[in-house]
Protein 1
Amino acid sequence: MTYLPDETHDPHLRSWIASANGPATDFPVQNLPLSIFKPLHSTAAPRIGVAIGDQILDLYACGKTGLLQGLPEPLQQACSTSTLNALMGLGEGASHALRHRLSQLLQINTTLPRDELQILVSMAESEMLLPATIGDYTDFYASIFHATNVGKLFRPNNPLLPNYKHLPIAYHGRASSLTISGTSIHLPLGQQQPADEGAMPGFDPSQRLDYEMEVGLFVGQGNELGMPIGIGQAESHLFGLCLVNDWSARDIQAWEYQPLGPFLGKSFATSLSPWVVTTEALVPFRCPAYGRADDDPTPLPYLSSLQNTEHGGIEITVEVWMSSARMRKEAIAPIRLSQANFAQMYWTAAQMITHHTSNGCNLRPGDLLASGTVSGPEVGAQGSLLEITQQGRSPIELPSGETRTFLTDGDEVILRGYCEKAGYTRIGFGDCRGQIIGQGIVEGRSGQQSPTS
Amino acid sequence: MTYLPDETHDPHLRSWIASANGPATDFPVQNLPLSIFKPLHSTAAPRIGVAIGDQILDLYACGKTGLLQGLPEPLQQACSTSTLNALMGLGEGASHALRHRLSQLLQINTTLPRDELQILVSMAESEMLLPATIGDYTDFYASIFHATNVGKLFRPNNPLLPNYKHLPIAYHGRASSLTISGTSIHLPLGQQQPADEGAMPGFDPSQRLDYEMEVGLFVGQGNELGMPIGIGQAESHLFGLCLVNDWSARDIQAWEYQPLGPFLGKSFATSLSPWVVTTEALVPFRCPAYGRADDDPTPLPYLSSLQNTEHGGIEITVEVWMSSARMRKEAIAPIRLSQANFAQMYWTAAQMITHHTSNGCNLRPGDLLASGTVSGPEVGAQGSLLEITQQGRSPIELPSGETRTFLTDGDEVILRGYCEKAGYTRIGFGDCRGQIIGQGIVEGRSGQQSPTS
């Protein structure tokens, strides 16, 4: 892993695809995020695509027309599959070689017989799928601001538990209900705490449906069972990042979670933004790890390295926007509810990977580690409604005159993320959208396919 | 789902494979459990096998030689794959048809050109693999005796939390580190609670490595995201059962688990017995659901049905046996540490499936639900060392003169399970074995393959 920008990050690079050159696009030629797509109404197999402006470069078509020639054979083969898992498993060298080839192919000074090749598909004419078959999904709790905000609601005098500053807390999430941006979210039913001890719990649609604004980390090369990944090697196992909305039913969670943690309060759905922004694309936006307070404990040696301290952070602004059904009907634009920076996480991506494998647990290519809710110390930097409304005690007002404590039928939540830095081209993650629908059957695309389908 | 035994359960049935007819075998012709195997030293693809005495019936070979002709085409195709997922996904009708065909093929009065067909492989000459690609692994906590025993250690006056009798508590487990019986278990490293508040935690090999004796439930047909499975349909989504050793590092778990539940204390390894005993094979051993106390709450309507009350239980005796390195060196047989019955679980398999999907969470064919530690009220019926040794306060004595509070390097743990009932042939699950090895690289077979491999 290098932290030095190279020629693919040059802000002067422009693409022959005009829509990639404007200041507003998330996908300039300096970004080159990867995902899986298929043309709408097509019966062709899904394939790997690269976002460029408002277009998708079709890597399967590129391979067929010889544009990937000269790349290592396993890399060429990985580019013709229907998930990113094989590419992820090839490791850093392959990612690096692919990025440089893609940058060359898409630069304005490249001469290609473009009209004949049919290597581009319009995003508007495409359906996005989950970028990988995700074997396991782990959710961390890495923002000390979020942990403190939530802790204060339950333990005002003692918000942070004693383990928090020593290890990155996490739990296993549900992989089957990971869904791609745009999938509607079914308001979940669930048991809710009885009003009085001894009374029967209710079983009703959640009254406290929340979003959680998170960053997702896709594992590249995995590790064998019993072989921990040291902190010095952890970054080389990180393929790329996306946005994650870890929908949470607070009432279901509150009643079920003792003593074994969240279960049905989370497992009804988790939304992912489709594009995986590679760690290579993020090089210009690396920064020191979060600066701990002087009286905070130093992490144990297995979680510490100079490299991690100096470069372990990534400056990504993440935001949550929301519109109600009424706002959309009255043509009122979505409003921003949250804005925070991933660089303010108490634990780095490398520390999450190293801790996760420290007991010998194996990670596999395509596994997803989510950061936990990204919150910051500033007003407006709280990444969940639980924090913003103080558990529902302080409703927010919408421009339509409505109020909200938690989400309700018809609400749409949009996560956005981007990196900006003087001297570099802004890159973005694309939207992660989900609209709440009332009880009944989920419409739109469903969750992960079966492992063998 | 029917609860009536049929001709495949007839205790008078005998097989032309002599080893299937003795009283000691786990695998008489009335059992017919399924798994994935490959002949030792073979480069052939893994295939589906049926345990019969000390032999394995090779379903791929059966298909090739026409022995599955007449069965539905999708079922024949599923029988020629390398995991049980496709077969599991076909549902009850396919399981029923396959069981009846297998019973016919293996009965003593069946005439087959056996020597020519090469449809049998000796178990001794085979390697067993995980029976399915397990997309998600969920671990329940369904024994009220276990929950009470563990609760007493931490809250002597209030061992059971208020939610316990209202819903089957569970958490998401780690799928990547599920391993097949016989895989060595690496003593995990991990952070451990500091002796004094303010002191630094240790990072050492676990001193409190435990087993947990559980029953695993394999999901058959799945459900779509947003489509709960009602209690009346739950049994039809259950394909079969196995034994699970949910290894637990109690010291790692104690320090990390607040507030989000178990993580690294569990994710280093979970061992499965290879053979999946189908729900069809278990029909003669069905029994009423656990009899709740008169002052226990009635489960909410979504978790209740007359069928579940009358037939929701399954009588399976589960046992844990153990030997130390010294015992094996001195040729001392393993000793039994635990023996309990799955029928004593507070929550039934159907209730676990229905609760799991009640929020719309989707289950996929091959998903694994484990029951949680099976403990009973009797002396000797505690399914973990945590309970038996009272958190290490009461060591057990081994016949070699050694003592144990928790497991150590060289110890081998063996789970066994079987069903016995007057008028029916005893069926068994086969062993689930795991030996603890010191720190270093895990030897033997590793965990689940990558989703795409």
Protein 2
Amino acid sequence: MRIIIDAMGGDNAPVEIVKGTLAAATKRPDVEMVLVGREEAVRAAMGQQTPANVTVVNATEVIEICDDPATAFKKKKDSSITVGLNMLKTGEGDAFVSAGSTGALLSAATLVVKRIKGIRRAAMCPVIPTAAGQAVLIDCGANAECTVEYLVQFAYLGSFYASHVLGIKNPRVGLLNIGAEPSKGDSLRLATWPVLQAAGERGEINFIGNIEAKEAIKGGCDVIVADGYSGNIMLKTIEGVGSYLGGEVKKLFLQSAKTKIAGLLVQSGLKAFKAQLDPDRVGGTAFLGISKPVIKAHGSSGAYAIENAIYQAVRVAESAIIAEIEANVDKMKVEITQS
Amino acid sequence: MRIIIDAMGGDNAPVEIVKGTLAAATKRPDVEMVLVGREEAVRAAMGQQTPANVTVVNATEVIEICDDPATAFKKKKDSSITVGLNMLKTGEGDAFVSAGSTGALLSAATLVVKRIKGIRRAAMCPVIPTAAGQAVLIDCGANAECTVEYLVQFAYLGSFYASHVLGIKNPRVGLLNIGAEPSKGDSLRLATWPVLQAAGERGEINFIGNIEAKEAIKGGCDVIVADGYSGNIMLKTIEGVGSYLGGEVKKLFLQSAKTKIAGLLVQSGLKAFKAQLDPDRVGGTAFLGISKPVIKAHGSSGAYAIENAIYQAVRVAESAIIAEIEANVDKMKVEITQS
């Protein structure tokens, strides 16, 4: 198993990327890790640490946030993203991890590594915390404008991710909507529901119907199917409310000596509470639908997030998810002319 | 000032509705309140309390959740919603409050009381808590499918609500989107942005551009403009995460004798924390765009929520918002043919 890591992507590159990689390399000596980026900077960040399972591949260019995401990887042929994805394509690694620009990474993955044949669009599928554990939210921003077929494919992709990568048996798939009844929602939801219902009846996915955002947060399903626009609204609202209420809870204990003592008394519980809100625990989100595992880590990733994104990449690469998608892609075809 | 209250709407009618009305009547002796519903049941709920400013109007029918929302008010001519809205229409009251079926109330308000001339669709505009205070979210479910013109009208309506009812000076209006740049989002957002930008440049609204959900929760704007589908996703996600994390915080203090003591030490702060999460504080949401004030209270409203919905109805009726909308409706026209 060999994971390729973009050493230059994200706000804290290369130092935190290198740090996270070294931490993962120590804990997983069975996994080879390849850091791609400006060799001098990467080696400087490594310092005295040179584990046997970490190698460095030089790439002189860096794709910046200001670069045009659609063309950056072509113009900067020696960028860490372009070099890393070409290595993935030619089999010099089993998965690619990057905290770089989402748009540039998605364009490059789509055009260099390519989508699985028959898959219309790659989707992002972050794992969100719920009151019952976790759920996959697919898509959450890669595709602002969706068709029925995209949503149907997301349902299968998310279901395969939940079962193959998260180990959830017979994952419950819900269509994110503003009411539970099939008659609820906009025209996209109205047209998608019967196609998912039919897939459920054929036993291809475990479709439980429409799910409201509130029920999804309660843990009402394992896979939340959304267009990239509304999935992103949901994801960012979760992050926003989590951060806001996390801050309020913190303030609760900082008011006086008395409340500070209270903080000490609930210390272990508070730690667990904070961990629940920590997006870095998961690491990143896979681009599902790409023919090889590509993991996008958050742009603000620190070492801990990168370490977890690497473990996630290992899990995705070890799973049979891509073979499963390829074997089932014919079932995901939708012949509907949309208005 | 006279507020008409649907005594039969919602899960806890008539007992909690009557209780909330009596509480409001005691605190606001200057406001007349008219309870509309099955007189016997309403009087039974009132018991010995017969304040001078509360009257009862008999209506023998009740619109149930299972009734068709589009036609229920016509079929049940003697329902509390139909009778109450007809009283509002003919000037026998200044505002109507109901915790009944959203769909039935919206249809009835639209067809009995009518929309303001030129307004394409009425919208729901709940006030949500943010890290900086509060924001108006418009729409959040009345209109699943929206056009550019609807969104543009929502921007004006929400802006007028924020200034006239909440007292926010020059409210900052943001278009809910998945990125801050004008180039972000789906085709609806791409087409709406320039129209709002132009309205901002003319000084008619204080348009600050696109706003991401996370920034909105931080308090980045005072009015969040959304189609009813994604606005509902945002609202229900806030409710879901709030309830989930509220529960986790509660658990934090229930683990042992030690943590229970901690709970006592932060008691006052905890109370304030819970209040922030309490949707009943606001009471309900106005149907903006209807020619008279109609307030929808949550279906699960207890007495406290109804009491607050009545105060909210008073504020809306006292404000100049409807005259302001009427005076500005010509500015909200959009001549775009949408794809």
